[in-house]
Design a protein that fits this description.
Layout (H helix, E strand, L loop, with lengths): L5 H9 L5 E2 L7 E3 L5 E9 L2 E5 L10 E8 L4 E13 L2 E6 L4 H18 L2
Length: 119
């Protein structure tokens, strides 16, 4: 029996969900709990998102509450997420306890921009 190496398993888990690139001209904003703009969405997946941001985040395991605003579909979806990475003005988060309504809204945004990534 061949046992998979732990590092290989972690790499597989990192790419569990297909990521959809979001172009800057889409202007999908990410707001914090005080409804202050903290970034612009750059990637979205069923498991999380990344955004371009000027804000610094600590990898402290804290759960953040954000609102994603997609103007074209008039979607305003509140999500809870935990930081996964920070690098050069970008931050990536994984969703925490995504409720069914929020999952539907995230799915609509993914569907809208999925075709744009295939062109």
């Amino acid at each position: 029996m061949i046992k998979q190496m732990p590092d290989a398993q972690k790499a597989d888990e990192k790419r569990r969900f297909e990521r959809i690139d979001i172009a800057p001209h889409a202007k999908i904003l990410v707001l914090d709990e005080q409804e202050e703009r903290v970034g612009e969405l750059r990637q979205l997946a069923r498991g999380g998102f990344s955004m371009k941001t000027g804000k610094s985040y600590n990898k402290d395991g804290k759960t953040h509450t954000f609102t994603i605003l997609e103007p074209g579909e008039e979607i305003s979806v509140e999500i809870k997420a935990r930081l996964r990475f920070v690098e050069r003005g970008h931050a990536g988060f994984e969703f925490v306890d995504l409720d069914p309504d929020a999952a539907v809204d995230v799915g609509i945004i993914i569907g809208k921009y999925y075709e744009h990534t295939k062109e």
